[in-house]
Amino acid sequence: MLKRPTYHLSPDQWINDPIPFYWEGVYHLFFQHNPKGAWWGNICWGHATSSDLIHWNQHDIALSPTPYSGDQQGCWTGCLFHHDGDFHIFYTGVTEREYPNRSQFNPIDSWFQTLCRASSPDLFIWSSLASDPLTITPPAHSGDCFRDPHVWKEGHRWHLIIGGEQKQGTGGAIFRYTSEDWKTWDSQGTFYHQPSAKGDWIECPDFFKLGTQHILLVSSQPKGLPLTGFDKRCTWIRGEYHNSNFLPIQQGALDTGYFYAAKSTQGPDGRRLLWGWIPERISETDQRKRGWSGNLSLPREIRTLPDGQMRIVPIPEIQALRHATLEIHLPRVDSASQTSRFLFPHQVFWNSEHWEALINFNPENCHTCGLQFEYGSQSLVLKYHHNRSTFQGQQVSLDEDGQLRLHIFRDGSILEIFANEQVCHTHRLYEESLATHLELRLFVEQGWLPQNQATFWQLVP
Description:
This protein is an all-beta fold. It is globular and about 70 Å long. The chain has two domains: about 15-315, Glycosyl hydrolase domain, family 43 (Tachylectin-2, Chain A, 5 Propeller), CATH 2.115.10.20; about 320-460, Jelly Rolls (Sandwich), CATH 2.60.120. It is built from one helix and 36 strands. Strands 25, 26, 28, 29, 30, 31 and 35 form a seven-stranded antiparallel sheet that branches. It starts with 12 loop residues before the first strand and ends with a strand. It has one helix spanning about 285-290, and strands spanning about 15-25, 25-35, 45-50, 55-60, 75-85, 85-95, 105, 110-120, 125-130, 140-155, 155-165, 170-180, 185-195, 200-210, 215-220, 235-240, 245-255, 260-265, 270-280, 290-295, 295, 300-305, 310-315, 320-330, 335, 340-345, 355-360, 365-375, 380-385, 390, 395, 405-410, 415-420, 425-430, 440-450, 450-460. The chain is about 0% helix and about 55% strand.
């Protein structure tokens, strides 16, 4: 039961937030990691590298808590960059000691957030400066959350944005600071404000230029949400950036499912690649028992069209894992029959839990249609509303042929779904017994779907 994913990064014990970085032919994935057990705690920075974005080699821990310092209770998320011949990490440290330049995080446990940094000559051996946290004071109007710095340089000045919240439940916020020496940081006010209805605090901000626009990525959640619950959201915001001010123009969901803490890096070919954390949907007891928890998503390219519209696509490098191909004819389905079982036959399709699929729909003659995954007592329904032009509640346009194309990746319990490169949905379905097989069904409400086709590939790492 609970078979492990094979082509998603999956270290032993605990993993969450990714921090990607590219340097001289090598992709580096740093991530939040507990090497002592499959539960959240004792957070360090894990490290893996790849030359092809598909096969990853894991390395020694990059950062770990330093006793009697600003990160003695954990090294949380941050950012990484190269400057003056060395590599630098700015990150959130958690401590029980009360530093003057920290913000209170959890007064019940006497935990406090600090801003720390570390440096390295080679990205593998890091020297922490957590005993001397950065002097950055939270704004007077900020709440308890104040973490996850993102840093860049403009001219001779350094800019730092950090996730947080406004006081009195008025919503999440990102605050901006500037410095010329990394020692003294001056507050420049609020960089971005998100109303309370979309999350009480913001984490893991990421900011970059994409084409002629600037993109801000934010991860948000209701304040006090238990780690085992999941009401977390990742959002992209497209806007204009002038004189250090960001003006939002449009926004949308990076993913509508189990996907959080997205961060990105630019590859050598100019692509903007991002990863997110895929949490579990099983109990902490089961996670501890099996010895691992969480995965990172497949790398996704985020790009803009000439009209400014966003596209999120799985990278083509994944095609190198394709092993065998199966073409399936999709029959006509109408609302009278409601559903049509067309997949798997599980035993025919290589007995595999690791595959990729392209499934096409022509929804012109129906009100609602979609795909239903059934796995024992579990199910996942992917629904397209033709009159609303929405997939999983998000706006999506059909392609030039009037098709909705679902690009699906399955890896053990993980499902990553891409709809016309515009909407992504990540989910987990777990094997309940050896006799449980995944079935897929087409369904239609009010109308009919014409015949179509689907292509499957077995994926072998």
